[in-house]
Amino acid sequence: MKSKVGVLVMSYGTPESLEGIEEYYTDIRRGNPPTPEQLQDLVSRYEAIVGGVFPLRENTNQQVRELQTMLNASTDHSDVEYVCYQGLKHVAPFIEDGVEEMAKDGIKHAVGIVLAPHYSVMSIGSYIKRAQAKASDLGIEMTFVKNYHLHPQFIEALSRRVSAKLDLFEQAGAKRDEVRVLFSAHSLPKRIIEMGDPYPEQLLETSNAVAERTGVKSWQFSWQSAGRTAEPWLGPDILDTLDELSKDNVKYILVAPVGFVSDHLEVLYDLDIEAQAISKNLDIRLMRIDSLNSDPLYIETLRDEVVASFKQGK
């Protein structure tokens, strides 16, 4: 008999349809409904990227399915059957729902992992806190993967994407060293610096590892998709960076959003539409690396981290 191990795959979440955006946005705002103007702004962003079709949730579903398949394909732990569950931060199934499903299925041991490679107490830390609290209530022993930002397969997957787009720049007539690579990630409130949070440092470590792997010397880091709150967020924002680089006569930019692993709003709108429009106005040729999504190298990264976490917790 194989023993069942639960794997709670956590992510930020996205609504399943345009009709679900208001409920989703209200949860992000801690139960405070958005104003009609705020809601319309978010709806219009989703409409711009999905065009009446809403494939964003399916991407996460596919990642979870492929992770479960890869976990159970390994012969290293034939006495274990891994069963993956989803737990989303701002939309059902919520993190607590995923833990409850594990308990209903009789799971006693589980691993939690977030579809985000870099740790912050405000992001991954909050996922873990919620999952751990529910798991403790239900008698499930749970270990967690906190980060995997330097996993060799993760770095390899990103490096291949950077190299592929640099090749396209060359084919279009640009010299490779003329292309400025902008690594990016979701901004967080600036106070994490005072808290000694490792998030900025881990992002720079990933960026540096990819730059070394690809031979990129002309690169820098920029933040994106900051929340609209009164407190200051980490910067510089990528839109401001584009303006500064234009003043420095940089004509070719490759954006590598290493903080994101999937195609979703912050990539498909903030970069592909908003940043792209600004770049055209500045006469900059901008490209973005393809998202990892269900790349086998990324799924291997998740598998390795889950297995290691389970073994350490035994």
Automatic annotation (TrEMBL):
SUPFAM superfamilies: Chelatase
Biological process annotations from GO: heme biosynthetic process
Binding site for Fe-coproporphyrin III: Y12, R29, R45, Y46, Y127
Keyword Transit peptide set for record: no
Gene Ontology MF annotations: ferrochelatase activity; metal ion binding
Pathway: Porphyrin-containing compound metabolism; protoheme biosynthesis
Broad class of enzyme this protein falls into: lyase
Keywords assigned by UniProt, alphabetized: Cytoplasm, Heme biosynthesis, Iron, Lyase, Metal-binding, Porphyrin biosynthesis
Record localization: Cytoplasm
NCBIfam families hit by this protein: hemH
UniProt function note: Involved in coproporphyrin-dependent heme b biosynthesis. Catalyzes the insertion of ferrous iron into coproporphyrin III to form Fe-coproporphyrin III.
Protein name: Coproporphyrin III ferrochelatase
Biological source species: Paenibacillus crassostreae
Gene giving rise to this polypeptide: cpfC
